[in-house]
Amino acid sequence: MEEFDVPESHPRxxxxxxxxRVERGHERGITSTQGLIAQGRGESIDYLLGERTLPxxxxxxxxxxxxxxxxxxxxxxxxGNAAALVPGETVDLAAVTGADIEVNLFHRxxxxxxxxxxxxxxxxAKEVKxxxxxxxxxxxxxxxxxxxxxxxxAADVVVVPLEDGDRAEALGEMGKTEIVIDLNPLSRSAxxxxxxxxxxxxxxxxxxxxxxxxxxxxxxxxxxxxxxxxDAQAALDAAERAxxxxxLAGAGE
Length: 253
Ligand code: ATP
Known about the structure:
- There is one protein chain.
- With 253 residues, the chain is α/β, with parallel strands linked by helices.
- It has a domain at 55-228: Rossmann fold.
- 53% of the residues lie in helices and 10% in strands.
- Strands 2-1-5-6-7 form a 5-stranded parallel sheet, with helices on both faces.
- α3 (55-70) packs antiparallel against α11, α3 runs antiparallel to α12 (232-245) and α5 (87-97) runs parallel beside α10 (201-215).
- The site of adenosine-5'-triphosphate has 20 residues, from α2, α4, α9 and α10.
């Protein structure tokens, strides 16, 4: 595929860049064909949100950063869409929060896990988990249950972009704090999340990292204050309101 050469001034720049990255990810065997469909679904919701981060999503990103900084064993789960869209941004978020990165796929093949791990390493990742697959999330059938024993299985806080509802539920039942990044405020995963970040991963991941940089020196009491001030249901409601009414000004204030 040719290099992406659309000027940033183009009104559809971000949307076109997103498509370009997903398409390139698909060509490299990183993003599944189902992932292309998921992208289309997300894109339509993002269009209705005005392709911007709502104030409520920004608050969620800040709460996500606080959770990651307070965690003992934070893990960023990466699927084929997240890898294609935000490889470098994921590596940066892991670095600033001290989180591990684990490839975790709905349509899992070892080949695709390896391709994604390699792509993340090209973007600066040192260690990428997910290949060992030596533990299982209880309550899910074999392939979808596979995780690393010293990764997601042992994690206390997990960031799951574009997660499917069943796995989000199963991870919640394991007692994990789940930070879900999903443009659909009605999706089961978003509704099950401790912190639903209703935003495009392409904006959400760097935004969580920016908040983490700002909060990095804060003490535990300050970080807990950020968590106490966050209301997941209010964030979901604000996003739904923005989508249904188109009134972006009223979303999250
Ligand atoms: P449900 O959770 O309701 O069962 P689903 O998991 O079956 O939904 P999919 O069609 O698999 O839904 O799509 C995955 C989700 O990812 C969708 O909710 C979609 O809005 C979201 N999504 C797609 N692209 C992005 C993106 N770039 N950023 C954030 N979310 C996205």
